[in-house]
Amino acid sequence: MKGLIYSESAQRAKELMSFLKDQMELDLALPEAEAVQASSNGASRVYAIYGDVYEPFAVASAVVSVFDGHDYLFVPATNFGRQVAPIAAQLIKAEMESEIFYFRPEQDGAIVRRYFYGGKTLLEEKTGAKVFTVMTGLAQPAQQGSPSEVIRVEAKGGLSRVLQISGKQKASADITKADIIVSVGRGLGKKEGLELVRQLASVLGAEVAGSRPVCSDLHWLDEDRQVGLTGKRVRPRVYVALGISGQIQHIVGMRDSKVVIAVNKDKTAPIFQECDYGIVGDIYEVVPKLIEKLK
Amino acid sequence: MYVALNILVFLKAIPEDVKEDPRTHGPTVEGVKLKMDDISRNAVEEAIRLKEKHGGRATGITFGSDAATLVMKEALAMGLDEGVLIKGYAGNNPSLTASVLAERVSRMQWDLLMFGFSSADSYTAQVPPMVSYMLKRPLIGNAVSLRVEGKTVKGVSSYEDYNVAYEAEMPAVISVAQEINTPRIPTLLQIMAASKKPLSVEQAQAQSARTLQVLGHTFPMSQRKRIIFEDTNKGVEEVAAVLRQVLGK
After folding, report:
1. Average pLDDT score over residue span A37-65
2. A209 touches chain B (CB under 8 A)
3. Chain A residues close to B133, C-beta within 8 Å
4. Are A37 and A105 in contact (CB under 8 A)?
5. 242-271 in A: which are within 8 Å (CB) of B?
6. Strand positions, DSSP E, chain B
7. What is the pTM of this model?
8. In B, which residues are within 8 Å of A178 by CB distance?
9. Residue A167: what pLDDT?
10. A13 touches A21 (CB < 8 A)
11. In 10 A of CB B33, how many CB atoms?
12. What confidence tens digit (pLDDT) does each residue in A120-161 have?
């Protein structure tokens, strides 16, 4: 059995390799600029894609051109991967499943698990699909391993033109690797409140993260610190949720945390169903006391 | 240059909530009210803004059932000119939905086909790229900004590590990110006026050939301790102790 992973980044390709490596032999396809960073981690082959590497049709065509001989195509569920995978599935006339976090090969298909209804429910399915987008951050990146044979593949035939690539502000830290996270929600009330949150984070040696409203809507924190369905999935030892109501879209991003502590004014907030320890109270009253106790 | 745009926007009606089936204890959406998916709302808003700027028409299309009528009326109230309700939706099946939509719009004149990037219920993000593939038209996905210039559309796609600015000849397929805009809330007057806007209902004759078999559909069980303190001081005391233990202090 043999799988092909396409990823636009070496990091996520290696995570997905770890996630799948006990189940099958793996080849990688990734942009040439990323290929060298993933060419000695145990993949049999690395297809280094050059040319129109940011255009979803061109990339899907390049990936499909090397799919022969593979049983499955896996793509990390990033915003670009989510465009490439459905086009690739159409090109090879295969069925596709999205956002899986569990995979077991079966005769003529696979058993997969994914969340449904925005993360409120869990589906287990037997599928004949060959193409899958896989949740990111499910495993640690693959370690150094045997070197791969590197083969160049051209991405061409895109339907749109790429005008410009612009970097995002680089995160000062990667919250998916944080051991302890202090996360804030709309309940913070004002941007200035972040000072207090940072104090607690500093006492705990934690990274600061936030819910969608705080990161994407209010921009109090950078988008790459967003936890949830449309943000990052984190799994720290301790997740402290401050003023986060606990909508399912947020829970999906932090439900694998080991210990969850929540502070919220609203006793009925759903976060109290998803925490180990909860304090009903104003964060501006609770957090200073907590800092005091921990100093 | 003035270009009147012909915009089609796909919107999805999704269940407001998921209930527990009293017999099976599994999830069910039977009898649950439908609402417009939030990301569809962003797509509708963007379609209306482009129409307002460039002139032209914006038409809403949904694949669903009669229950989606109210959702379509809301989109008309927001400012779409007309709606098409395609019945025959039989559950989440992105490639089937894509083929129904692609077939329908291949019989229409349009410049932009707009979607939300990924719906909040099934969250597969498959339909826009599949429709784009089926129609062999360019895709600008997860767009956080859009601009029409002459016969081309320019958009910036938001990705995890960088943003990419694309340019495509119209007709083009666009999926929008939530960040692109803040959708308007229709006024009472607009809601009343919407009932006079044309809404056509048709039936899709689509057959699914999918091999999918559901083995289980459950509410994930949370194994949390749920020790909640309403006394702040006691809570702080206990939580500090837990944190100290975890930190090894």
Report:
1. 96
2. no
3. 57, 86-87, 90-91
4. no
5. 249, 255, 259-261, 267
6. 5-10, 13-15, 19-20, 27-28, 34-36, 56-64, 82-87, 112-116, 139-149, 152-158, 162-169, 172-176, 199-203, 213-218, 227-229
7. 0.90
8. none
9. 85
10. no
11. 12
12. 899 999 999 999 999 988 888 888 889 999 999 999 999 999
Contact B213 A125 (CB under 8 A): yes
Residue B49: count other Cβ atoms within 10 Å of its Cβ.
17
Q: Do B235 and A278 touch (CB under 8 A)?
A: yes
Q: Which domains does chain B have, with CATH numbers?
A: 5-203 (3.40.50.620)
- B120-162 pLDDT tens trace: 899 999 999 999 999 999 999 999 999 999 999 999 999 988 9
Chain A to chain B Cβ contacts (< 8 Å): 259
Mutate which of B42, B95, B236 to disrupt the A interface (most A C-beta within 10 Å)? B236
Nearest-Cα residue of chain B relative to residue A166: B163
**Distance of alpha carbon A157 from alpha carbon A276, whole angstroms:** 52
* B-chain residue closest to A259, CA distance: B224
CB contact (8 A) between residue A57 and residue B139:
yes
Question: How many residues are recorded in chain B?
Answer: 249
CA A246, CA A253: separation in Å to the nearest integer? 11
Measured distance CA(A188)–CA(A202) in Å, rounded = 18
Rounded Cα distance between B118 and A86, Å, is 13
CB < 8 Å to A230, chain B: 178
DSSP string covering B39-92: HHHHHHHHHHHHHHHH-EEEEEEEEE-GGGHHHHHHHHHHT-SEEEEEE---S-
- Read off the pLDDT of residues B92-122 as tens digits, 9 standing for 90 and up: 899 999 999 999 999 999 999 999 999 989 9
CB A163 within 8 A of CB B165: yes
**Structure tokens belonging to residue A73:** 């195509």
CB–CB contact A99 B123 (8 Å): yes
Closest CA of chain B from A206, distance in Å: 11
What is the number of residues in chain A? 295
HEC secondary structure over A77-127: CCCCHHHHHHHHHHHCCCCEEEEEEEEEEECCEEEEEEEEHHHCEEEEEEE
